Here is the input.
Amino acid sequence: MHMFTSAALGMARRTWVRVAAAVAVALGAGLLVAGNAAPAQAAPPEVISRWNNHRVHTGSLLNLNNFTGFSGKYTITAKTHAHNTGNSTINYTCTLSAEGGADTDFTEVTLGPGAKESIVVHVVHDFTGTGMLAFGCTKPAGTATVNLNQIKLTAIKVNTLDNQPF
Here is the structure.
């Protein structure tokens, strides 16, 4: 069995602290020499938002908007509040689509006479082609008018995407 005196333990601790400090200085100097004085930071998100507080949907297809100029990775959400102004029940669908259907989401609701429903669609997409995003709604031809209120579309550019089924 080895017996260490408190003086020997104190000397060992001081030696360890000096070695750790020397290693830290050497690593820091190596990082500076390599040109990496600070760790790389992620780019801040870019937010694009569009809105329209009221659109009237009379025909069977209402193209709310085609947005262009997207490049890179985005998470995109669109929402609206649909109000059936007629006396018959209709099926109503809104779709959000990136680059011609590469990534698409839709929400279908049944709107009774005078009914109001919130509709939300969401996609994530890495825009490498056309940079186009389409948002629109459909209803059966000849059915009542649908008022769309508080239409909001928000696209947030992100550094990375991990889009896979669970």
User: Anything to note?
Assistant: The CA atoms of residues 96 and 104 lie 6 Å apart. The two ends are 57 Å apart (CA to CA). Residues 11-34 have pLDDT under 50 and may be disordered. The chain is about 15% helix and 50% strand.
